[in-house]
């Protein structure tokens, strides 16, 4: 029996739609991928993106193009990914700022962390380092606390801006030790480190990748780190936890895709990102520059971390009256 023309006209597009999903998954990726890094080129965020992205591209047999979209502590880059097509060709290198602390800092984000992204892999943790300019007469956390208690609210500490990791880690430390210092926000990490090196501001809770070389050269003095364990690059520097200060906190980085990206594509991306992080050259590059620990944990672990971090930093921000708006 002949099939009426009208039925054929309806059925052919329907069949094409039904078979398009599996066919696309089988051929993925068929073109270059974009990895949005929501911070400027040249920093540690950028180094992670380029290190992991380059190796993933080799494993996927496609180019991974790193695109820097800085601004508003990662908001601009994260928003670009949140509204991108969920086809696996636009990814976000997220982290503690765009994927956790921004919830505490901004009353109205232009994206929903829980609804607009799919988690792929937890890449790395990197602690902060409590550092001082050598002109400050302190050689330990105990010395610093004695000075701060002698002059409450007057000793300044530098950060990369209101709501930055340095700021929040600093407030976490001050809350834990029941002390007060004067927060001095700068417009980014580079100006805050420059102020620290010049002695304009004597203290900072520096991102490891920003300050570790200055510690090695003697231009800064490290008092403690905020990780669970001492870092290999500065084995003589104790953790806060060792010193009896209940502060354990890390900067962290993860890979995300827009919500709605097919599960098969997410699995492919997770497998290749995990493989990239097993590459010794990638691990060495990431670890050496940021005193970092490569994690390579899956989507569920990244989700659990993100949820815990959002709750923690919302509490810290609320207790200390911190807001970027």
UniProtKB/TrEMBL annotation:
InterPro entries found in the cross-reference section: BUG, Bug_dom1
Protein name per Swiss-Prot or TrEMBL: Tripartite tricarboxylate transporter family receptor
Keywords: Receptor, Signal
Signal peptide residue numbers: 1-25
Keyword flag Kinase: no
Family (UniProt): Belongs to the UPF0065 (bug) family.
Keyword tRNA-binding tagged: no
Superkingdom to which the source organism belongs: Bacteria
CDD domains given in the database record: PBP2_Bug27 (cd13578)
């Amino acid at each position: 029996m002949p099939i009426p023309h009208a039925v054929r006209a309806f059925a052919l597009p329907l069949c094409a739609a039904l078979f398009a999903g599996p066919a696309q998954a089988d051929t993925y990726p068929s073109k270059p991928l974009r990895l949005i890094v929501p911070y400027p080129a040249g920093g540690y965020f950028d180094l992670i993106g380029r290190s992991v992205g380059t190796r993933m591209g080799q494993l996927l047999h496609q180019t991974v193009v790193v695109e820097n979209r800085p601004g508003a502590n990662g908001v601009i880059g994260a928003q670009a990914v949140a509204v991108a097509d969920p086809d696996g060709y636009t990814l976000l290198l997220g982290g503690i700022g765009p994927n956790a602390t921004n919830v505490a800092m901004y009353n109205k984000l232009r994206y929903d962390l829980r609804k607009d992204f799919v988690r792929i892999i937890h890449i790395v943790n990197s602690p902060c380092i409590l550092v001082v300019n050598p002109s400050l007469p302190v050689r330990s956390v105990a010395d610093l606390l004695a000075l701060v208690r002698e002059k409450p609210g007057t000793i300044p500490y530098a950060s990369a801006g209101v709501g930055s990791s340095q700021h929040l880690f600093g407030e976490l430390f001050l809350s834990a030790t029941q002390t007060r210092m004067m927060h001095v926000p700068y417009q980014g990490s580079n100006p805050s480190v420059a102020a620290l090196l010049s002695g304009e501001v004597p203290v900072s809770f520096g991102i490891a990748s920003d300050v570790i070389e200055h510690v090695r050269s003697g231009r800064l003095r490290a008092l403690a780190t905020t990780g669970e364990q001492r870092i290999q690059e500065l084995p003589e520097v104790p953790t806060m936890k060792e010193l009896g200060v209940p502060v354990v906190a890390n900067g962290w980085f993860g890979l995300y895709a827009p919500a709605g990206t097919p599960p098969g594509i997410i699995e492919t991306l997770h497998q290749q990102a995990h493989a990239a992080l097993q590459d010794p050259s990638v691990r060495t590059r990431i670890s050496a520059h940021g005193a970092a620990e490569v994690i390579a944990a899956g989507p569920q672990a990244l989700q659990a971390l993100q949820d815990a971090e959002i709750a923690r930093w919302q509490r810290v921000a609320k207790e200390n009256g911190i807001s970027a708006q």
